[in-house]
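Propose amino acids for all 155 sites.
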């Protein structure tokens, strides 16, 4: 089952009440397999065609480094929780995708999703764009990323 999540873009995280960040380093091996370093833990995740994690397991640093060497893309981001609403998290991207700040709002029901009114600091919804999921983002080159980001930040 797909989680009910809307995604929005923002220009910065300045002045927002946020938790301390958790650093993610993600490496995509193919559409169904990614490895990540989350803080100091190494994990392997199997994804389904809808980008849902169907299996997650801890792996050794050695296995992580071997799989990372075969990856086609790297995503590094810091993840924050919005302290005024536990449904909201914010991803701040680093490296190749610097400049992207993605807000994710997760709902427990369709009704909750339908009735949600976004915060006034949230920008345009990007749920259907290639910026919405790390898997899709990982396939963009620098020119494609800049073009997609510009499309949403200039509105």
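Proposal:
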């Amino acid at each position: 089952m797909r989680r009910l999540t809307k995604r929005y873009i923002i220009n910065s995280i300045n002045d927002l009440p946020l938790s301390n960040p958790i650093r993610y380093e993600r490496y995509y091996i193919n559409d169904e397999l990614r490895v990540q370093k989350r803080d100091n833990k190494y994990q392997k995740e199997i994804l389904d065609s809808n980008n849902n994690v169907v299996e997650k397991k801890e792996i050794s640093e050695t296995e992580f480094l071997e799989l990372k060497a075969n990856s086609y893309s790297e995503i590094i981001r810091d993840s924050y929780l919005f302290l005024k609403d536990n449904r909201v998290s914010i991803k701040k991207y680093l490296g190749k995708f610097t400049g992207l700040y993605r807000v994710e709002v997760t709902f427990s029901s369709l009704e909750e999703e339908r009735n949600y009114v976004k915060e006034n600091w949230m920008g345009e919804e990007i749920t259907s764009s290639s910026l919405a999921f790390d898997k899709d983002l990982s396939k963009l080159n620098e020119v494609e990323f800049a073009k997609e980001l510009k499309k949403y930040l200039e509105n």
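The helical segments are 61-68, 110-115, 134-137, 142-153. The chain has a mean pLDDT of 93.
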